[in-house]
Every structure is written in C-alpha cells, then in structure tokens.
Amino acid sequence: MIKNKLDEKIDISIVVLHYNDYELTVNYVNNIQSLNWDNLNYKIIIVDNCSPDGSGNYLKTKYIFDEYVDVIISPINLGFAKGNNLGICFANENYHSDLIVVSNNDIQIQDYDFFIKLWSTFQKNNVAIIGPDIYSTDKNIHQSPINQQILNKEQLLIFEKNISKKIKYLRVIKKLKVYNILSDLKRCLLGKSGKDSYLYDKKQYNVVLQGAFFVLTKKYLNKHPEGLYPGTFLYMEELILFYICFKENLDILYDPELKVLHFDGVSTRNKKNDRCDKYLFEMIETLKSCNVFEKVISEYERGINHV
Fold this sequence. Notes:
Elements: E1 10-18, H1 22-33, E2 40-48, H2 55-62, E3 69-73, H3 79-95, E4 99-104, E5 107-108, H4 114-125, E6 129-136, E7 141-142, H5 153-176, H6 179-190, E8 204-205, E9 213-217, H7 218-221, H8 237-247, E10 252-262, H9 275-301
Helix pairs in contact: 5-9, 8-9
C-alpha cells in the first residue's frame, strides 16, 4: 500500500557504496542532510566495501552518534551488486523503507526539494524503479538513460566478441607502454567522445537507467527484498536489472525532473599511469558480467523464478 504523505511520514533509505575516498563520502552525506526532509524520515546507510585505506573505520567513528547514518563495513570487497545488497537488506530489515536509493558516493544533489519531488513522482506513477537525470561533470554529458533496448543472447554474444578483441588490443598496448600517448592523441584530435544519453530531457518508461543513482520502490522490493541480482562483481548491473524487470512486468521510470550531478572520474583523474590498467580491468570485468547476464537469460528461459 502506498502511504499518504499527509497521514504519516515516509521512510526513505539512501544506500551509499563507499570505497577509499573518505572526503567524497562525507561531502555527500553533508549534501543529503542539507536537503528538505519535511514529512519524510531518512536514513543514510554507508556500505564500506573493504576499503584498503581503512576509511570505513574512520566513517564508523565519525557517525557513531549520528542517528541518521549507519555504517556497515564489509570484511571483503563484494563489488557493486552484493555491496549494495548489504545496505538494501539492512534498510529492509531495520527501517522497512518505502523507497531505497542506491547511490555512488560521487554524487551531488543541488535541488533542495529533491526527495519531496521523488516521493511525489512515485505517488503519481507507482513504478518499481525510478531514475533521475544524471549529469557527468567530468564527461560533460547526461548519462541516463543508457538505452531503450533489451539485449538478447545474439546481441550479447556480439558484444562479448567486441570486448574480447578490446582486451587483446589493450594487452598489446600495455606491453608497448603507449596507452597514454594514444589516448591523449585521440582526445586531442577528436575531443571528448562522449555524447548525451538518448532523449535525456524526456520522461520515459522502461529504459535502462545509469547505475550511479537509482531508486528501488516497494513495488520492486516486495518481489526482490534481497536487492540486485548478485552474480556480478562490477558492470552490466543496469542491463541485468532492466532484463529482470522486463521479464517480471516491473515498470521503470526515467524522470528528468529529478536531477543529480555525477563526479565520476574524481578518484582516478590524477592517476594517468594507471589508465591502461583501469580500462583493461573494466573490460575484463565486463566480459565476466556478460557471462553472468547469459546465465540470467538462460534461467528466465527455463522458467526459474527469481522472486
């Protein structure tokens, strides 16, 4: 049942996945707490994904007396899906949240009434998942929605072949130690290659949302209290989530009236020597996630119920 905002306060939990950047997470928590929370209860659940720099323990100490912030420290790095699931399950069990926001820590919300608008959007639409306009300050592009199409097995196999080719090329480039030269030359000649997401300024249903910030509603959580599909470590989570929602008739809404900034690239911007390794890691993990996606498709084809 959808609560009436006038009858009782709404419970919103914000799960923030943290890894290594203490200041970034603290700034984001400050940002969230500075917004308008009239008629809304909120809890911020920071999930430290076994940060090597020990910043999870600093966060635990900082917020030990803050009734609005919980810090969970994972003993191992669980990756994106399972790391967020720690926070999602904690929110479900402890706060029975009406909405659970899944968010990176490199986000800023400038709209003072963002969460008031978010609840209003849900009341008007009653969908399973809601995504905002996500603007990347590093790439200067609108990142969501990613696309409108569901991948089938044939398309996924083609995508895997292209990723495999990229991995081979990157390994050669790494040995030759020319990645930075080629990357800088490409940027100099072509400029930034990114482009705005398709129809980012239009309200859309059942599209693939960018994963830096999205909202799980009771309609989704009632079927999937465990959270996200846990098979991946990094990458492809948005496509898998979209596929599952498509198969289970769970509606997704992209609403450009809701806006957030995404400071992606902040932690790696000054690490030029690591750019090739970083990109190679991304491609290898993406290929692994493609294999997981294949498994998900096969399970649904066989009629395996994920509820």
